[in-house]
């Protein structure tokens, strides 16, 4: 006996929606047993994770704040992944974007500037693009594998930020502690929707999502990405240079990660410090795949992931569950959601036979 | 400064990378990209340590650590083979899952200590001047890692099963057409990868340190994944990569102790820079054909 | 395996949830929240803070309820802090320097909640700061190290070039020089608070360069263990690490936050809490030297005398004149000693250290 999987012909949107929900239910069922062993109520856990995140306005705002960088980075990554290019180093591009964007904010500190934040974002995006360009050029010029170079560049970016914040960019009045000055209002992203936490980065994320939707479905460039990923030979027949594509998508991806970094620094943190990301660049890889590289899917999966992350924190606070348990749950949930997603995409058949 | 000891340190520092990377290499040659090495390593480290303490036996600890790695890998196998789920996403999820569960298991053992597994000196060979101590007076895992490299290289290039594994990795559609049991071979490769990662984890908690604490793996699993790419999926080059990285990590610390006045962040980035530079040179010299197995990362589905 | 007990717990917990949602509230307890930078399983810094929290629960029993969030990123701390404030925690401790701005931001929004921020320097009406004078312990360690060293070279494994580490290095060197003026010191920065394998390698690097006594300002017991394996000496960090290195640990610099946490919580309970800046050391037992071992009696006696002198404020590790690397006297802003501010923001090496401080 063996298992055979084949692509399903027609997948209804209902199935697409039902799969993650079924997965959530299953994951919670498994977690409920474990949580009961810890002597806590599974019902309460459900309340903390889901109802709590969606029911009050403060929690919703926090959800948006957390999802913003994930959306921006994951959209960028989707350009790379669509053309089968493995940029795993978005975390590094995020850090570089935050660092150079923040640098603008620090350099203009104490000056007579009325509007700095657009430049913070611009410089952050450019810096991220340049940093994304490195693995791309190493790939097309020397054939160096981009998974390795982009990931190694993450560590280098983090150490560079560390050096800058402890050295040249540290607050001169900050008692030599590793942090920059806190940015002035002109350098901070404006808050939106009357919230005191949700910032302009969210608007950017929405714009980027909309533009990407148009590019992916309507433009020649979108076609080019798809064909480069699916059939590289056909792409070159069509006159698309895979080298140029590589460089373009890495720069787009880097720019968006850098933009996310700058918007996080100038929108949420408000200064430079040795750590500016709790691993958004890596979480975004999961977001991109969970969202099936589709812009709308990415938005939804970023929200789900943000909800699970915040839920884990709330479980520590309200249920006093340990971090390890919430981490394990997050991993389990992702595994089940990804599996359920495949369940929708493929037909399963048990075939009698020797092979399998 | 004692050069023998420095060389000795480099060898031990490189071993966990090599062990974990060997397993990942076999997994990837079968066409499966498992990015969850970090999680499997953490499981190996935690379970191995817990078992060694509970049963007061290093052998049981090592065995349980490897089993824990395999069990974690089995979760991954279920998702990517059983459900053809996305491998990159599942690998990242497995990392998170493994770190969490390892923490849950290890928490009761925080603050406990077990005497590290001691090195064994190989008679005569360890007396060779200069390299004797550095090469022939290690713990058994160092030798295992080298023997395992040779075995994996031999297995992949010289055995029928190895050939089958590689063809499954290159193109699972034609492998299936040839009548190869694609899923079973991949399952075996994933489990082998898990066992190796588990062993690397055990190395950290029972040999390197003799204790368990959260985050003991400190991203070493990721380095192992990268080394497979660095080695262009060839076992022998894995040794080169692991030792270059290990050497750079150790030597940057020596450079600091030697008081050269270079910022420590710059020195800490040396292993990464060196690895990139060597990779670029290798890729340049070898041309562009250093790609991975053809089916790497693609879900195994019947195309019709 | 699902046991009957687990099922009973499940049912009981469900009932509890229903009760809670129907508005039956327990008696008023003071809710105290903690935000930790690391996992409590690190057996280092955050572990030690959590021990303090446990001591608080034990001491004040049913008057308090404590909550902690572990592994909080400095890049995303505002939300968990605010969530604690929103969920009725009236006293919140944040245990890392990097939480400073986030703590202040939330404190502004919740004027009725008291905040306590460790190792920072910005305060507000409802934000107090607290830290321990680790350097006092480093001075004693330096003296012991200089006495115990045969090679005349001692080592310091530090995490990051922040003032706290720099002050520790200087105090260690000044202590060593006080008993052996020609002592040499080698410093290695691990660029991590916690990575056992890397810390062990760093310790090996120091030993391979003729260092024979090290102290560490990173969290894991790995460097100390390396000392044990190499037959050298070291000092435990944050907790007493004797079980990891019975022959190598000379003493450990133990953080004890219990007293502080209990005292501050009592003040809130009594309604007497005010925003203060606490920087205690050996005097208030915020740092404690674990028993002196593996050393000759005269060294032990010296260490005990120094400890007593520092605890009674007779001896100041940074007593003037303090000379910088170039031999220039550092301006003396305190009374016969460097001022707290100078120590808190220290970014120079004292004379005799040959390395260059990363700037």
How would you describe this structure in keywords?
heterotrimer, B: 304 residues, mainly alpha, 71% helix, C: 359 residues, alpha/beta, six-stranded parallel beta sheet, six-stranded mixed beta sheet, membrane (chain B)
Describe this structure in words.
The complex is a heterotrimer of chains A (356), B (304) and C (359). Chain A has 356 residues and is mainly alpha-helical. Chain A is built from 13 helices and 2 strands; from the N terminus they run βαααααααααααααβ. Chain A has a domain at 68-297. In chain A, α3 runs parallel beside α7, α3 (57-82) packs across α12 (295-319) and α12 (295-319) packs antiparallel against α13. Chain B has 13 helices and no strands. Chain B starts with a helix and ends in an 18-residue tail after the last helix. Chain C has 11 helices and 12 strands. The model of chain C is unreliable at 1-26 (pLDDT under 50). Chain C has helices at residues 4-21, 45-60, 78-86, 100-109, 134-148, 163-179, 196-208, 222-230, 258-269, 297-311, 340-344; strands at 30-35, 64-69, 89-94, 114-118, 127-132, 153-158, 184-189, 213-217, 233-238, 249-255, 277-280, 287-289. Chain C is globular, with a radius of gyration of 22 Å. In chain C, β6, α6 and β7 form a beta-alpha-beta unit. In chain C, the strands form 2 sheets. Chain C has a 6-stranded parallel β-sheet with strand order 2-1-3-4-5-11, sandwiched between helices. Classes of the chains: A mainly alpha (356), B mainly alpha (304), C alpha/beta (359). Chains in contact: A-B, A-C, B-C. Chain B: It is a multi-pass membrane protein. Chain B: Keywords: Cell membrane, Membrane, Transmembrane, Transmembrane helix.
Brief summary of the model shown:
Chain A is mostly helical. Helix content of chain A is 71%, strand content 3%. Chain A has 13 helices and 2 strands.
Low-confidence regions of chain C: 1-26
Main sheet specs of chain C: 6 strands, parallel
Helix/strand structural class of chain C? alpha/beta
Q: Which structural class is indicated by helix and strand composition of chain A? A: mainly alpha
Helix content of chain A: over 70%
- Give the strand order of the largest sheet of chain A, numbering strands 1, 2, ... along the chain: 1-2
Helical run tally of chain A: 13
Helical percent range of chain C?
A: 25-40%
Largest sheet of chain A: 2 strands, antiparallel
DSSP summary, beta strand count of chain A: 2
Keywords (chain B): Cell membrane, Membrane, Transmembrane, Transmembrane helix
Subcellular location (chain B): Cell membrane
Membrane topology (chain B): Multi-pass membrane protein
Organism (chain B): Hohaiivirga grylli
